[in-house]
TrEMBL record:
It comes from Setaria italica. Is involved in the conjugation of reduced glutathione to a wide number of exogenous and endogenous hydrophobic electrophiles. It comes from the Eukaryota. One of its GO terms (cellular component) is cytoplasm. This is Glutathione S-transferase.
Amino acid sequence: MAGGRDELKLLGTWTSPFVIKVKLALSFKGLSYENVEEEDLYYNKSELLLKSNTVQKKVPVLLHSGKPICESQLIVQYIDEAFRTEAPSLLPVEPSERAMARFWATYIDDKLFASTFRAGRAKTGEEQAEALKETFAAVETLAATFKECSKGKPFFGVLDKSIGTV
């Protein structure tokens, strides 16, 4: 695909759950892309990253034929809309279900990932305990929601009897 109309490059780092989310979306759609690993996001960001994401200067960034798309959720939505492949859609087609999927994706980013990152960066035991408490609360909410949404039908490929308690 190099040089082609649909050339894709993903700027990221292997440790980022946001980058992993985009890699999964690209994989589910069966798309080839060049993975551009950012070596040092704290002190030595690549020129390509700085030029592609001038506002936030963070990963992931998807370059599609040189045009940058930033923020993992927006990238996933872009992939789904821009690449109508034989693979299933990444998001539901029905507008209310699509909105619900976007809501839970935001919840995971804003509650689960944020509290997990805070726990990892905590300077005191109290800070870490509070962040972990928030993380476990977010997981409990997700588990309860998945169980409720799956009543009598598969949800993420499992039936509600398969979902354990937290």
